[in-house]
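An instance noted here:
***
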Amino acid sequence: MFVPNVQSAPAPIVHISGLKKSFGHLPVLKGIDLDIQAGEVIAIIGKSGSGKSTLLRCINGLESFDEGTLSVEGLTLLHDNPKAMRALRQRVGMIFQSFNLFPHLSVGQNIMLAPKLVKGQTKDVAKSYAEKLLKRVGLEEKFNSYPDQLSGGQQQRVAIARALAVNPSVLLCDEITSALDPELVGEVLRVVEDLAQEGMTLLIVTHEMGFAKRVSDRVVFMHQGLVHEMGEPNLLFGSPKTPELQQFLSSIQA
């Protein structure tokens, strides 16, 4: 888990300053400032439409932004520079709520694809690493299975293994349990919790408040396109400062 050094904090692994994004005439991100240290686990909470998923998609380059700066490990995200975008995508992994596995590829092939294409790994090296990653998420016996032969929870664990296959510095998780039946949520969250314990830098958009409180170093509450409140989980959940966060937490607990 992240342990802050109060004497001389290192440069953040993710630096976001003045980030703005609109879809047409609708502003979605209205000026986000956020620094994340290596090994830190950030949970991002808020109402639907507050900009949480758009923020993650900006960090990994899936969405362009209109104003501001964004860098990962000191590399500035430049949408008009293909080389810069490739470099960024080797550093940032993302897991989506809908798995996004290729149905015509086996589990092993899904995981091997990016290392072969992005990092130029040989088939044997990629296969060996894919097997290790499947063991890490508890699915070593599913290498030759196809996505439609797996439960939703198993598919999402494969998606986690696939995201880890390029050895990202930062892993983004966008509501990764929202498409799962309730009985399958725990098996996916346990894998993410293990990654947090191992020191992976994580940004997690989630509606699982108990999980956010347990696993995160800081919680970010987004409201109407802004970072409205931020702090350690015990303080943020225990003593919300703003009426907006108070209302959000009471609506979830109701």
